[in-house]
TrEMBL record:
Protein family membership: Belongs to the TatB family.
Transmembrane segments: none
A GO CC term attached to the entry: TAT protein transport complex
HAMAP family, alphabetized: TatB (MF_00237)
Example of a GO biological process term: protein transport by the Tat complex
Pfam entry (one): TatA_B_E
Cross-referenced InterPro entries: TatA/B/E, TatB
Protein's name in the database: Sec-independent protein translocase protein TatB
Domain of life: Bacteria
Encoding gene, per UniProt annotation: tatB
Region (Disordered): 73-122
Species in which this protein is naturally found: Solemya velesiana gill symbiont
Protein task: Part of the twin-arginine translocation (Tat) system that transports large folded proteins containing a characteristic twin-arginine motif in their signal peptide across membranes. Together with TatC, TatB is part of a receptor directly interacting with Tat signal peptides. TatB may form an oligomeric binding site that transiently accommodates folded Tat precursor proteins before their translocation.
GO molecular function: protein transmembrane transporter activity
Subunit structure: The Tat system comprises two distinct complexes: a TatABC complex, containing multiple copies of TatA, TatB and TatC subunits, and a separate TatA complex, containing only TatA subunits. Substrates initially bind to the TatABC complex, which probably triggers association of the separate TatA complex to form the active translocon.
Length: 122
């Protein structure tokens, strides 16, 4: 940020020594150091807050992109579920029709006696 070399600092120190005097120079340096430290800590705090906000925004964008990518998968799952439900309904109706057709051609009492005879082994 500031390009301050050794000679610039040396000149600044000499000017401060002449203006303030040797008795008050250490206290002035201490106070200046305190203010400089506070300023640096405030700047680093602001930078950290900005970084957190930027990362939070990036995370929100990533989550939104993932939601967009997940929508086609959800559509495929819903479509497959509806197709499976339709197939189930068709199968059930076909089985019912077959049972009705078989039930009309054979008496119900004959079916139950044959089943019970087969189970008992006779």
């Amino acid at each position: 940020m500031f390009d301050v070399g050794f000679f610039e600092l040396l000149i600044l120190g000499l000017v401060a020594l002449l203006v303030v005097g040797p008795e008050r120079l250490p206290k002035l340096a201490h106070t200046a150091g305190k203010w400089l430290g506070k300023g640096r800590s405030m700047i680093s705090s602001v930078k950290a807050d900005i970084d957190k906000e930027i990362k939070a925004e990036e995370l929100k964008q990533v989550l939104e992109e993932q939601k967009k990518k997940m929508n086609p998968l959800e559509e495929v799952i819903e479509e497959t579920s509806s197709t499976m439900q339709d197939l189930k309904n068709e199968t059930e109706s076909t089985v019912r029709d077959a049972q009705n057709t078989l039930g009309d051609s054979k008496p119900a009492s004959t079916d139950t006696t044959n089943d019970s005879e087969q189970r008992s082994g006779g």
